[in-house]
Amino acid sequence: MELSDVAGALDTISQQVSALSCSIRDLQNGHRHLQDQIHSLQTSSATSVPDPGHVPEPRVPLPERYTGRRDHYQAFITSCILLFSLNLRTYYNDYVKVRTTISLLTGEAQTWAHNLLRTQNPILDTWTSFQTAMCDMFDDPLHNVYEEPTSTPKST
After folding, report:
1. What is the pLDDT of residues 25-46, one digit of tens each?
2. Domain hosting residue 15, numbered range
3. Which of 152, 65, 74 is nearest to 109 (CA)?
């Protein structure tokens, strides 16, 4: 093999390596672009509210007003959670959920919540913190205590 043949072969190999490098760069850019699109779609689907014209929200009555009675707390908070979960567009953020819940309070519970509003208590910043504070304040401490099942007499 002559020197000119080796130089020609090296030149050809060099061009092929350069072309492969460009192809790899294009593939990497395409891959990066696809990853960005996937991330964007995941973010938008996780935070998006369904199109208001797409599916109407069901008509769910507001929970009964809550006075602060411990034996009624679980029914009240469960009704609120159900309302919020069925009407995602209406109750789309924590601010709306907390204020709606406060608007359904009367008596001792209303006094407690209005005091939080007046003092701009950070408990009001999230639905979770407000719900936890309400639970601490009004839930029946014995609601998780289960009675032993009573045995039924066996027929003879």
Report:
1. 888 888 888 888 888 887 766 6
2. 11-43
3. 65
